[in-house]
Design the sequence.
C-alpha cells in the first residue's frame, strides 16, 4: 500500500471535532466537574494507591508488597503479599517515583487521562487506516467526514470508559489501560496484516506486551489474533515474498515473547501460567459467600454455567432504568437475576452494552456482513482478524461468576473496531443517497451518540458522588432537587422521620431522620444499601458545678462494627476530659480545666466523605476518630448509629449537668423533606 498522503483539512477537522467532544465529556467526569487531578475514588484513598505500591516494590527490587497494604484484595502466598493486577500501569509510575514521592497515591487521574489519550489516538488512526483499506486513498466527502466525527465522539466519550472515569481507582484504571493497549495492538495488527515491516511488527509487539501486562484476558485475545493474522498473511502472500519467513517470524515474536513474559510473571507470583489462586486471597478468608461460590463451582468462579446470567446482564435491551425524576435514567434497579441456580461471587447493578451504546453495538454487529459482502477480499483479511480478536476479549467476563458495570469495558475494543469497519463498509451507501436521507442518517447517529455520552457521563458522575460521598453527593442531589422543582416533578421517593432504614427501598430513595438530623440515600446495591448524605453534628453541653466529684458519665454510644461509648471523666479539681472506649483500647483526650458553673461542649460529628466519626471537646480538641460504618458478618455495610444517653441521676451524683445543644443544621434535608414526593 502506498504511503499516506498529507492529511486533508476535512480529515483534520472531523478528527478534532469528534475527539475534542469526547475529551470534554470524559475529562469532566474524570475531574468530577472541577479541578482536582490528584483526587481518589474514596476519601481515604483505598485502591487508588495499589499501582504506586507495586511501583515502589519494583524500585526496592521486589514483586511482593508490604503485608496488609492491599486489604482484602491481597493474595498471601508463602508469607508474601501479591497484587493480582498485572504491572503495566505500575511501571508507568516508576519514572515519576524516581524523581519524587510527593504524588504517591494521587497519580490515578493522570494515568487514566493518559490512557484515554492513547485510546483516542489509536482509535483515530484505526478509523482512517480502515478507510484506506476499504475505500482507497481518496479524500472523504463532507458526509463521510461528518459521520467520522460523530463516531469518534461516540468512541471517545460515549462508552463505559466515561463511566469508569468517575471512580479513579485501580479497578477502573486497569480497564482504561486495557482498552488503550488492546485497541493499540489491534491497530498495529491491522497495519502489520496489510504490509508487515519492522516498524509495524515492533509496535505490535510493544502493544501486545503492554496489553497482556495490563489485563490477561485482553492480552491473550490479541496474542491469539496476532498468531492468526501472521498465519493468514503467510498463506496469502508471505510465502512468495522476499524475507517472508523473517516477517512471519516477526508475527510469532510479537505474540510469543509477551506470552512468555506474562506466563513467567504469573508463575513466579502464583505458581500457575495464567490463573491466580482465589483461595489465597484475603477476601476469601473473611467472606463466607466467596467461599460458598468457590465450593459450588469446583474451586474457581469461571465457567460456561454463568453465561445465561452474564449474557442477560451485559446484552439485555432493557439494561437501563428510566425514572420520572432528574436525570431520568440510571443503572438498572437491581443486580441481575442469577439464572439456572448457579452461585456467583458478587453481582452489582449493571447497565447493558445494548442499552448504553446501541449505535456502536449495532455497527459492530453490522461490520461482519459489511466485510463479508465486499468484493475485494483484502479488507476481510486485514480487518477481519482484528475484529475477531476484539470479539474474543469479552469472553473472559462472560464466563466469570462476577457481574459489575465496569466489566462491560471488555466490550469496548469490539465496539471500536466494529464501528470503524462498519463506518466504511455499511454507512457509505446510506450517505450517498439524497441529501435529505443522508441528513436523517447523520441526525440519528448524532442523537444516539448524545444518548450514549449522556448515559455514561451521568452514570459516572453519580457513581463518583455515591462512592465518594461528602460535598459532591450533596451537590449532585441538590441539583436533582432544583431541576425537579423547576420542572414541577415529584422527585425521588422521600421517607420521613425514619428511625430504622428499610431493607427494600428502591434506588434513589431518600430517608430523613426525625428533625432532619441526617439524610440517607438508597443505592440499590446489596452490599451497601444505604449511604449517608449529610448529618448534623451532635453537641452536648456539660455544665460543671462547684461540687464536682471524680468519676465518669456516659454521654453517648456509637454502634458501628464495634460499639463505642463516649464518656466525660471528671476530677475534683474541676478538670475534665473525654474518653472514647471500645472495650479494648480506650482513647482519652487531654485534661483541661472548667471554671465552676461554666460549661464545656462535646461534639460528635460524622464525615461522610471519609466515613469516619470524630469526637472533640471544646476546649480540649480532638479525642478520637473511628469508622462510621457498620460491617455485618455477611459484609453488608450499613451506616453506624449514634444514641445520646441521658442519665440525670448520674450527672447529679458527679455534680454536672448535661444538655443537648444545637449543632450545625443539615442543608439539603430540610429542602428535600419539605417538597419531596
Sequence:
Amino acid at each position: 500500500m502506498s504511503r499516506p498522503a498529507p492529511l486533508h483539512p476535512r480529515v483534520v477537522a472531523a478528527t478534532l471535532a469528534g475527539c475534542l467532544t469526547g475529551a470534554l465529556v470524559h475529562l469532566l467526569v474524570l475531574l468530577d466537574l472541577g479541578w482536582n487531578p490528584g483526587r481518589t475514588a474514596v476519601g481515604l484513598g483505598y485502591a487508588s494507591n495499589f499501582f504506586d505500591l507495586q511501583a515502589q516494590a519494583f524500585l526496592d527490587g521486589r514483586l511482593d508488597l508490604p503485608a496488609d497494604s492491599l486489604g482484602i484484595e491481597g493474595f498471601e502466598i508463602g508469607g508474601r503479599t501479591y497484587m493480582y493486577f498485572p504491572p503495566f500501569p505500575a511501571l508507568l509510575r516508576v519514572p515519576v517515583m524516581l524523581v519524587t514521592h510527593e504524588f504517591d497515591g494521587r497519580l490515578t487521574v493522570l494515568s487514566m487521562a493518559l490512557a484515554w489519550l492513547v485510546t483516542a489516538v489509536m482509535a483515530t488512526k484505526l478509523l482512517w487506516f480502515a478507510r484506506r483499506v476499504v475505500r482507497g486513498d481518496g479524500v472523504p466527502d463532507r458526509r463521510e467526514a461528518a459521520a467520522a466525527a460523530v463516531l469518534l465522539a461516540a468512541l471517545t466519550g460515549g462508552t463505559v470508559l466515561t463511566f469508569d472515569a468517575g471512580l479513579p481507582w485501580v479497578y477502573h484504571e486497569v480497564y482504561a489501560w486495557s482498552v488503550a493497549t488492546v485497541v493499540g495492538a489491534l491497530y498495529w495488527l491491522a497495519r502489520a496484516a496489510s504490509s508487515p515491516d519492522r516498524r509495524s511488527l515492533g509496535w505490535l509487539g510493544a502493544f501486545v506486551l503492554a496489553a497482556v501486562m495490563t489485563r490477561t484476558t485482553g492480552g491473550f485475545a490479541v496474542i491469539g489474533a496476532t498468531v492468526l493474522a501472521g498465519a493468514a498473511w503467510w498463506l496469502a502472500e508471505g510465502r512468495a515474498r522476499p524475507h517472508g519467513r523473517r516477517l512471519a517470524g516477526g508475527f510469532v515474536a510479537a505474540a510469543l515473547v509477551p506470552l512468555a513474559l506474562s506466563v513467567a510473571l504469573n508463575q513466579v507470583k502464583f505458581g500457575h501460567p495464567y490463573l491466580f489462586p482465589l483461595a489465597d486471597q484475603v477476601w476469601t478468608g473473611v467472606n463466607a459467600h466467596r467461599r460458598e461460590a468457590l465450593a459450588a463451582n469446583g474451586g474457581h468462579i469461571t465457567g460456561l454455567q454463568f453465561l445465561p446470567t452474564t449474557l442477560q446482564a451485559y446484552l439485555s435491551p432493557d439494561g437501563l432504568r428510566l425514572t420520572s425524576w432528574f436525570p431520568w435514567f440510571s443503572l438498572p434497579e437491581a443486580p441481575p437475576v442469577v439464572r439456572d441456580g448457579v452461585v456467583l461471587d458478587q453481582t452489582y447493578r449493571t447497565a447493558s452494552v445494548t442499552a448504553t451504546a446501541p449505535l456502536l453495538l449495532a455497527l459492530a454487529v453490522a461490520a461482519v456482513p459489511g466485510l463479508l459482502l465486499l468484493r475485494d477480499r483484502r479488507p476481510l483479511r486485514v480487518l477481519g482478524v482484528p475484529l475477531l480478536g476484539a470479539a474474543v476479549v469479552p469472553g473472559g467476563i462472560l464466563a466469570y461468576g462476577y457481574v459489575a458495570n465496569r466489566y462491560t469495558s471488555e466490550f469496548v475494543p469490539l465496539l471500536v473496531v466494529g464501528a470503524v469497519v462498519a463506518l466504511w463498509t455499511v454507512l457509505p451507501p446510506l450517505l450517498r443517497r439524497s441529501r435529505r436521507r443522508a441528513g436523517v442518517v447523520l441526525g440519528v447517529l448524532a442523537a444516539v451518540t448524545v444518548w450514549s455520552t449522556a448515559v455514561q457521563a451521568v452514570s459516572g458522575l453519580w457513581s463518583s458522588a455515591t462512592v465518594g460521598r461528602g460535598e459532591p453527593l450533596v451537590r449532585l442531589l441538590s441539583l436533582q432537587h432544583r431541576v425537579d422543582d423547576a420542572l414541577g416533578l415529584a422527585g425521588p421517593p422521600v421517607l420521613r422521620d425514619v428511625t430504622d432504614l428499610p431493607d427494600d427501598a428502591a434506588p434513589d430513595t431518600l430517608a430523613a431522620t426525625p428533625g432532619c438530623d441526617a439524610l440517607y440515600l438508597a443505592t440499590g446495591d446489596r452490599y451497601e444499601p444505604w449511604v449517608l448524605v449529610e448529618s448534623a453534628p451532635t453537641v452536648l453541653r456539660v455544665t460543671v458545678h462547684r461540687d464536682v466529684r471524680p468519676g465518669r458519665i456516659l454521654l453517648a454510644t456509637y454502634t458501628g462494627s464495634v460499639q463505642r461509648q463516649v464518656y466525660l471523666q471528671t476530677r475534683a479539681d474541676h478538670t475534665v476530659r473525654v474518653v472514647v472506649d471500645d472495650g479494648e483500647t480506650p482513647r482519652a483526650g487531654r485534661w483541661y480545666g472548667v471554671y465552676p458553673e461554666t460549661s464545656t461542649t462535646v461534639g460528635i460529628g460524622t464525615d461522610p466523605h471519609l466515613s469516619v466519626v470524630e469526637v472533640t471537646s471544646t476546649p480540649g480538641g480532638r479525642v478520637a476518630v473511628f469508622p462510621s460504618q457498620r460491617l455485618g458478618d455477611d459484609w453488608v455495610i450499613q451506616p453506624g448509629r449514634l444514641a445520646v444517653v441521658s442519665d440525670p441521676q448520674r450527672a447529679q451524683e458527679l455534680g454536672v449537668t448535661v444538655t443537648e445543644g444545637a449543632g450545625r443544621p443539615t442543608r439539603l434535608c430540610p429542602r428535600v423533606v419539605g417538597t419531596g414526593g
